[in-house]
Amino acid sequence: MNIHMKKTPQFKSVDKALCTFLDERQRAYKSSSEETYWHASGLGYCLRKQYFMRLGLEKTHATPYKYQFVAMDGNASHEWRQEALKDIGILLASEETLISEEHQYKGRYDALVKLTDGLSLIDIKTQGSRAWAYRKRAEKSGVSRAHKIQLGSYFLLLKKKYPKLKDARLYYYNRDTGEREEYIIHFTDTYLQKIIDILTTLNRYWKKQEVPPAPPMHDRKLCNYCDFRGYCKDLKKRGNADTLIENYAGKATTIKKK
Ligand code: SF4
Predict the structure, then answer these.
(1) Distance between first and last Cα of the chain
(2) Is 42 inside any structural domain?
(3) 60 found inside a domain
């Protein structure tokens, strides 16, 4: 018997094996990542959540497996489209990490393509029918506010590298029905300045070591799904955040409440 032969892991079901894979992936990602930047994917949502993420705090609530599965399928859905754009000959770059030291910001866009009209930045969004219908109900333009901010933040940095960059596009795909929608966005300087303002605000709180306020009540639908909601509940209950972060994360960071 080969003593180096790897022992077959024991799982009673395929689902258990896949969930374990996700747990291990999450652990590996955590130990290899140092959260020293603001992240593009959360820019249009709660500033406070961004702050907790950058601090590298432990999540107070685990992300349910069903959302992790959806996210993995979303990534896989990007991959074949990027491959297809490459194969068809219009892909110039993809999955490139953009960093702004000035704004302490990091993001990774899906694709940069050359179309008949010029260079276009693409962000692919895969949605189920419920999210698809909600987006169209909530936004007259059909474009999610948060998705637009995320895309704009990529545009801001990518334009410096590719001055000929002409526009940006949100390419929505409904995984339940196969419907597709492509929104072309021309960012104005005023809009891009708003994104810089968000980053400036975040950096101001970071410098002061102060937790940003929670979003207004009507914007708190996502709180029920937030992995950090335990901190906010505690913050509300105790009305004093000075020791809150240490209690949860064992970090020597003192956060002052506003
Ligand atoms: S629970 Fe709500 S307010 Fe608190 S960090 Fe999460 S999204 Fe923000």
Answers:
(1) 65
(2) yes
(3) yes
Evaluate whether residue 14 is within a structural domain: no
CA 174 to chain centre: 19
> How far does residue 228's CA lie from ligand 1's centre (Å)?
6
Strands in 91-94's sheet, in edge-to-edge order, are: 91-94, 111-115, 118-127, 165-174, 180-185
Per-residue pLDDT at 258? 46
Query: What tens digit of pLDDT does each residue of 158-184 get?
Result: 999 999 999 999 999 999 999 999 999
Which is the closest atom of ligand 1 to the Cα of 229? 1
Q: Report the distance separating Cα 232 and Cα 234, nearest Å.
A: 5
Task: State how beta strands 118-127 and 165-174 pair.
Answer: parallel
What is the domain extent for residue 227?
Answer: 32-249
Strand, coil or helix: what is 86? helix
Distance CA 129, CA 22 (A): 25
Which atom of ligand 1 is closest in space to residue 51's alpha carbon? 5
Q: Is residue 11 part of a domain?
A: no
Tokens 């970090």 sit on residue: 251
Report how far residue 135's alpha carbon sits from residue 129's, in angstroms, rounded to the nearest whole number: 10
Specify the 3-state DSSP secondary structure of 214: coil
The total number of structural domains in the chain stands at 1
CATH code where residue 189 lies: 3.90.320.10
Distance 242 CA to ligand 1 centre (A): 18
pLDDT band at residue 115 using 50, 70 and 90 as cut-offs: very high
